[in-house]
Amino acid sequence: MRYSGFRVIAEALTGHKGWKPVWRDPAPQPEYDYIIIGGGGHGLATAYYLAKEFGQARIAVLEKGYLGGGNVGRNTTIIRSNYLLDGNEPFYEFSLKLWEGLEQDFNYNAMVSQRGIINLIHTDAQRDAFTRRGNAMRLHGADAELLSREQVRQMYPWLNFDNARFPIKGALMQRRGGTVRHDAVAWGYARGADLRGVDLIQNCEVTGMRIENGRIKGVETTRGFIGAKKVGVAVAGSSSKVMAYAGMRLPIESHVLQAFVSEGLKPLIDGVMTFGAGHFYVSQSDKGGLVFGGDIDGYNSYAQRGNLPVIEDVAEGGMALMPAIGRVRLLRTWGGIMDMSMDGSPFIDKTPVEGLYFNGGWCYGGFKATPASGWCFAHLMARDEPHKTATAYRLDRFLKGRMIDEKGQGAQPNLH
Amino acid sequence: MIIHHPILGPRDAQEFVYLGDAALMNRPDGMTAGIEEFHDWLYNRDNPAGEHQELWYHEQGDRSWLVVTRNTVTHEITKVELARDVARSKGRSK
Amino acid sequence: MTQSNRISGGQIDRSKTLRFTFDGITYQGHPGDTLASALLANGVRLMGRSFKYHRPRGPLTSGSEEPNALVELRTGGRQEPNTRATVAELFDGLTANSQNRWPSLRFDAMGVNDRLSTFFAAGFYYKTFMWPKTFWEKLYEPIIRRAAGLGSVTREEDPDEYDKGFLHCDLLVIGAGPTGLMAALTAGRSGKRVILADEDFRMGGRLNAETHAVGGQAGADWAAGVVAELASMPNVRLMTRTTVIGAFDHGVYGAVERVSDHLPTPAPGKPRQVLWRIYSGRAILAGGATERPIAFENNDRPGIMLAGALRAYANRWGVKVGERVAVFTNNDDGLRTADDLRAKGVEVVAVIDSRQGEEVIDTSGRLGLKSITVRDGKGRTREIAVEALGVSGGWNPNVNIHSHHRSRPVYDPTIAAFVPGAEGPPGLLVAGAASGALSTHAALRTGRDAAVEALGLTGAAELPEAEDAPVRVKALWHVNHGKGRAWVDQQNDVTVKDVKLAKQENFTSVEHLKRYTTLGMATDQGKTSNVIGLAIMAELTGRSIPETGTTIYRPPYTPVAMGALAGRSRGKEFKPFRLTPSHHWAAEQGAVFVEVGMWLRTQWVPKAGETEWRQSVDREVLATRKSVGICDVTTLGKIDIQGTDAGAFLDRVYANTFSSLAVGKCRYGLMLREDGIVFDDGTTARMGENEYVMTTTTANAVTVFRHLEYCRQVLWPDMDVQLISTTEAWAQFSVAGPNARKLLQKVVDQDISDAAFPYMGAGNITVCGGMRARLFRISFSGELAYEIAVPTRYGDALLREMLARGAEFDPIVYGTEALGVMRIEKGHVAGGELNGQSTALNMGLGKMVSKKKDSIGMVLSQREGLVDPDGYRLVGVKPVDANGRISAGSHLLEKGAAVVAANDGGWLTSKVYSPHIGCDIALGYLKAGDRKIGQRMRAVNLLIGQDTEVEIVSPHFFDPEGERLRG
């Protein structure tokens, strides 16, 4: 079923009787060519591109809960490609380009909205660093601008310009950055994959892997054994747990990141804004809620919930930047499990087990990467060689000393 | 969270800085171990969903490094020890 | 019209009259009123508009679960969007306006959405607005964004203060209804420290809204008596207007006390709200229950409210919502509303009990309820004219806080509701209605028993007599009738049809239902809608309610003002300031300051007539290089390291060797992280056989100290080495320039001639006739230079003494800008180069990493990616044309190469104008830079359109042989 404005009107006039399920609920087959573990954004995108771009068939996505219930369903919806390092920037720019054509590609309105992102500058050293970054972005074909204090003031005159502990001195802006309706990304990929014959199997938790002579044979699940020629793992915060089934230890820690949304408000903030001096970033959803976040809580956690100090810390950043929001109310908090890697950058790589592939280590930046992650993981799984924009995301990069450390914090995941 | 400091009693976790898995105290000897051994020690983690021994530093307190045994699913803390004692018990010296 | 709907009784103070305005019209109410009760007393039912269809709405509830009656309270910087009229306490002069309507509440142009609602079914926007591609940002989305949102935000700063506090108790009791009061009383009488918190401004909970007797007196009076007794106990803290917002780890609860929201403005010196962090030994959730509606056609009109709310308005506030009232219920509790209203003389024209086969199937009245249509068990319908309808679908225990650690509630069919499940927050007990014990007697009993259990008390107080009616409910989630819309989530306009559509499209998981239809995502967090929605989904899918499950309740329990969460950390007080010892002197001179982490440092010190910062900075540099300049470097981290293993310890933590350093000398040290990347640098002096003084960079003072403690306690626990941070203990000044020694000799008591105190010398000295001090002959400017330290409180005096006694040398004080110029002229790495991504090799300091000893980072610094001969190397960069401009952050490319990433050679890390050299100079990292000295390249800054031919030079622009600093 193809979605369109005409269809919406026609259905509205006939009582919405014609809408079909967005996906089937198939029973698992005994064997597939490809199994993707994890029905979050990355897993669903991988299945979609495997089927659509790489012409593969007999694909299943195994999800322990509900589709889109991973971090794609609990994030702050930001897309951008404002990365510094050569290992990252081409990949994220590829991802941003895929976002730009995504809705027409999968025929689902995910509300990709390029209203721009600004990273505020508070010190000369930050301006120097952002100048380096902005130039790196431009060299890679992305867009970047340096805004003066006055330009920022014209955009948001009600920010704290006159009584700030850390004065606003300008901003790095990427106009093509923005936000996307996160759930719709999962649903759009799921629907697109389902239409192409991918079996999306919910409530099917992987409990083990069958590996014989160094080669993957399939996975044990709560719904029985399912055979597969190739298995791709895209389970974010559960990466260590699932890869342990293959006997692997990963350069990853799982941490909790809290995020927040305010009550619905009339328009206040058009684009996305980050306040580096205060561990705070914010945008406003189309429904009117301010969506904001800050640092991870900082300790290993699988609890999917955080503690009060970080909530306060984030609110302090918000109030320091936006003194007018004192009476705006925080509506909802949530916590997701972040697969924090040792250099803050992800992995899309083969493993020592033949036919087993790993995608993870996205830290809290996985949402914006969803299309490219899916595409590049599909590329790797279908062709057994990395996509040209994802050649640096190797699991052996720490052994080789080829870290991709945007923040320069070293092997300490909670600082990335 | 509240950490029961073995010397100072219950303290808010906000007074502490977190480092990570207490296995980090098992640093190889740089004069005998090579890159591979150091790499595995520094970068790879068990990252368990469950009981986890981890290093916390009482930065806004007495500057003790502690080994805290905490469940990463429930956040329950079952044991807190001075890291120095744990290190010695593992044979670390000079 | 003056309080036309006010009836007798209630807990309001009729002796005082309060005036307030709503949408510009002035009304009257009394102390004890909420905005909603006062408006209802004045016959106003219409208070808001819904989110999507802009349906006219009045209050559904009398509490914090209110989805409909949201207003903008107050004006100016205090304007508060989305305020629930049902909990806003009335005060004299209160101003409120309706929101999300244009041009007025009665005539809202966006009400057209309601007529077009068939086009706005759940998730319709996911299926359209995709063509043409650019129209989303340009057309569709701007329209949606303008239409969306509820209340509007002021652009003015919130003028009120907020604060934070910490409380400790043996027992926290959440909720002061019969359960909480009995629990607190039991615990309070035992002498334990008790905190009793309730969101309401009057304790008593439902006892204030009911007519039940407790212990032979009116429930509200019994409650008042208990509150009085609790207030007399020094071990009990009563907190009204205090919402416990969340259960966090290890017995920590967050609570927000609304100190001043019931006042026109906070009293002088008082905050508007306080965020409390409550550390509890144990806690009891006594949060009561929330009534839920029943979905039927047009069940959202002003005048239709929960039966318990209708009763509360009558009993607590002395308000009838209409002249003719009906009740629609599926349980016995709804019948009480009819009884109570009749007792108050309100005309109850119909009681529709679904258990008798009767149902309300439709209603009429555009801006307020006019009639209901009832269908009896035989299928006959009748229309009844009413102004108010009380609806009761049963009561949902307020399990929310018990679920904050992700415990899933379990379904209890006997009360047709979810009750707390297993494994809630450790230490938290649930009692009373929150646990599913819905009678008053059960509340009192379970409240008492929970306190006894929580505190391990022996013996329990007698319970007062109270009603103990069984719950008689027959689940009814929605009325199956017709084609109209029946609201499930009133604020977000989610109807039964939307739930059906979600089912039809296979969004059947409760999470999918929530996300696809937005059910339960409004400001009320679905307190009155979630359970109905999932129950309908269960019905549609043929699954049981337990199989269908619930979504997760998360903090906060009710929405919390950002100001309260931020407390005092705003404006300039966002973070503390650290001031240097020379701050006051510098301020007197009119110095310009700059934020450096937490520090405020002198950036430059302008002299009269200087209008451009460069004039001041150039002068400071030239004067220093010509004669002498002084700079406050107190911000550098300073660590005293002592013990018989101090030298061996330093050998481990520094890449280079310190155990061989002679006493009385200092050495530049390079510290790596374990991954081989440079962590920090600084000089460390050996002050005695077993005594060293380390300096760190300003930025890493804290992290280096933490790291050293880690090495000492965890890695090498038997090393005899002690550490203490002395950053705050010593004021330290750099004194640099050809006349540095001469100036210093004016204050230093000992001989500091080159022979007595050679280059890289260090020692304890005295100044000004006996004041203890430390002197280090080190230089980061390339000049003859020292760093002199005195106890911090003498720093200001030392600076003034040096300037006074050395006046003949025309000393100047220079700031961080001149400091930066001189260190770059000399090629010393600092912030821009110490970026956490660079190795010693990158910095041209590879030889400093000794492989003869084990040190942090030594092994992993040898990984192949870090020893690439073509990797980045530190270079100096200057424009070929002295007038050419370059920027920090510019990238270096070969001349003639296309400006693309493949040709990216490196970048400039730091750039200054060098008055000494007479042009811009920079440091930078360049691939194979050590082999490119003398080459010409381009420095490109695309962000400002700068493309400058540059020469790659040695990073040591100034005195590369180091003759001056040894002079």
Detail the topology: elements first, then pairings.
The complex is a heterotrimer of chains A (416), B (94) and C (967).
Chain A: H1 5-13, E1 31-37, H2 41-52, E2 59-62, E3 78-79, H3 89-106, E4 117-121, H4 124-139, E5 145-148, H5 149-155, E6 170-174, E7 178-179, H6 182-195, E8 199-201, E9 206-212, E10 215-221, E11 224-233, H7 239-244, E12 252-264, E13 272-275, E14 280-284, E15 289-300, H8 308-321, E16 329-341, E17 347-350, E18 356-360, H9 366-383, H10 397-400
Parallel strand pairs in A: 1-2, 1-11, 2-8, 4-13, 11-18
Antiparallel strand pairs in A: 3-7, 4-6, 5-6, 9-10, 10-11, 12-15, 12-16, 13-14, 14-15, 17-18
Helix pairs in contact in A: 2-6, 2-9, 3-9
Chain B: E1 2-5, E2 9-12, E3 17-21, H1 35-43, E4 51-57, E5 65-71, E6 77-82, H2 83-89
Antiparallel strand pairs in B: 1-2, 3-4, 4-5, 5-6
Chain C: E1 18-22, E2 25-29, H1 35-41, E3 48-49, E4 56-57, E5 70-73, E6 80-84, E7 94-98, H2 112-115, H3 135-147, E8 162-174, H4 178-189, E9 194-197, E10 213-214, E11 217-218, H5 219-231, E12 236-239, E13 242-247, E14 252-257, E15 273-285, E16 289-291, E17 304-306, H6 307-315, E18 324-329, H7 332-343, E19 347-353, E20 359-364, E21 371-375, E22 381-385, E23 388-392, E24 395-397, E25 410-412, E26 417-419, E27 428-430, H8 440-455, E28 487-489, E29 494-495, H9 496-504, H10 510-517, H11 530-541, H12 545-548, E30 560-561, H13 562-566, E31 578-579, H14 583-588, E32 592-596, E33 599-604, H15 613-626, E34 629-632, E35 637-642, H16 646-653, E36 665-672, E37 678-688, E38 691-696, H17 701-715, E39 722-725, E40 730-736, H18 740-745, E41 762-767, E42 771-776, E43 785-791, H19 795-805, E44 812-813, H20 816-826, E45 872-879, E46 891-894, E47 906-914, E48 919-927, E49 936-941, E50 946-953
Parallel strand pairs in C: 1-7, 8-9, 8-15, 9-12, 15-27, 17-23, 18-19, 18-23, 31-33, 34-44
Antiparallel strand pairs in C: 1-2, 3-4, 5-6, 5-7, 10-11, 13-14, 14-15, 16-24, 20-21, 21-22, 25-26, 28-29, 32-33, 34-40, 35-38, 35-39, 36-37, 37-38, 40-43, 41-42, 42-43, 45-48, 45-50, 46-47, 46-49, 47-48, 49-50
Helix pairs in contact in C: 4-5, 4-8, 6-7, 9-10, 9-11, 15-20
